[in-house]
Write a structure and sequence with these properties.
about 45% helix; globular; Rossmann fold; 3 domains; alpha/beta
Amino acid sequence: MLLLEGHHIKIEIQGNLLLDIDRLTIHQHDRIGLIGKNGAGKSTLLHVLAHKQLPSKGYINCHVTSLLLPQLKQKNKEQSGGELTQSYIQQALQKAPALLFADEPTTHLDKEHIVWLEQEFKRWSGAFVIVSHDRAFLDQVCTTIWEIEDYHLHVYKGNYSSYIEQKERKSSFLHHEYENYIREKKKLETAIQAKEKRAARATKKPKNVHRSEAKITGAKPYFAKKQKKLQQTAKALETRLEKLDKVEKPRENTEIKMDIANHEDFYGRTIIRVEQLEGKINQRILWNKESFFIKGGDKVAIIGNNGSGKTTLLNTLLSRNKAVSISPAVIVGYLSQHLTLLKAEDRILDTVKETSKQNVTLIRTVLARLHFIGDDVHKKIDVLSGGERVKVALAKLFVSDSNTLILDEPTTFLDIEAVKALESLLQEYIGTVLFVSHDRHFVNNIATKMIEIKNNQLHVFDGTYEEYQAHIITPPRNHHANRKLMIETRLTEVLSLLSMKPTEQLEQEFQQLLTEKKRLMEE
């Protein structure tokens, strides 16, 4: 059953083309994920489809009841952002329209409530179009992906993972086409050069032409005729080269190689040691006492429900606290949720260069990886969207003197392409990263160590998010294992220090560590 159809839709903003869609349809039970870069027109298209805004040209026919769930930005004093989002979603589901348009419905939701929302959409009997940058969510609930790219709407059957596979096949085909084009172009260019050289040399009598033959035919007409034929052949090859369909080279990421401060005293060594750290806000316990360590080069994800204390833990690790020891080799770069790093009147390139010792080529490469290309780098901060400002702040951190990045919800406001670009940069980054995120795809692609705050406990795990999920589903190992590992690591460090410069304090610590290790082994 056809629920909605649109024909010859053009949407313009202040005279500039935003979208040009020849035809689109939505049928009963369609579960559509709408994706595209920031500013591509996703929210605008939802408003047009929901009859909240008229297209510049074309028309939309909707044959059923529809409802738009807009992107929620406002908060009130009684409800958190997550509670407000959940309330709006519940109200929309209760109205049960045949067609639902939802703009970023996972905004402010923690993992637990995102899973709840997934279940609600799976049970949903109507059709829906959802704008979201949460790839795991799109995988779970969508059977079709609409992508806005270059002003047009492209339809891919399947969930987000299927869309990625189709895009990768398309990318492989484009690379193959480009290689064929370059090969054919080079072959024609080589043939043209060879013919032109032969034509230039066609001024002497060839060896196989006898003198008597040359007298009969006349040398000059013979050579002139030969030269003309070669030139004609070269001209024909040039025509073929001109008519050869040009294939643009597919864009590829330039690998980032940068030096970070104190790398030799940093990588693979314990840089943050936490001993019996307790989390408290006034009299409320966020987590009970726990010990763990972080090494140089670790990518640490801090996860947990809203209000569990994730940002508090980040701030505690940065503050002066007797339970936290930080190596003097650590230089911190911090991305807060409030983007205090940026000045509205500065230009992108200038603000990123301001705190960097890296060369301009590398800075522009990082900016290009985050989709600031060419003259984009000269835009002022005050004209940028929220997502673009986050990308500038991230670029500024990447090229700073920092060797430890602290990122609080870095994917907020970013479109999927920007999130993937950030993932790529973080995977190549050789420093340490501590980050808070509810984006499960992002966490799994980046994290090498997990800290979950749950039921007033810090659960520390060495491994990816996927490995951690498998670990908590299967029977856990000895609950003293992490503490034992930390003691063994510290024992190795103390032994090394004792061999170089023994002191009574180190000897006492060594004996205490041995005693505690023995106790844990007995338990």
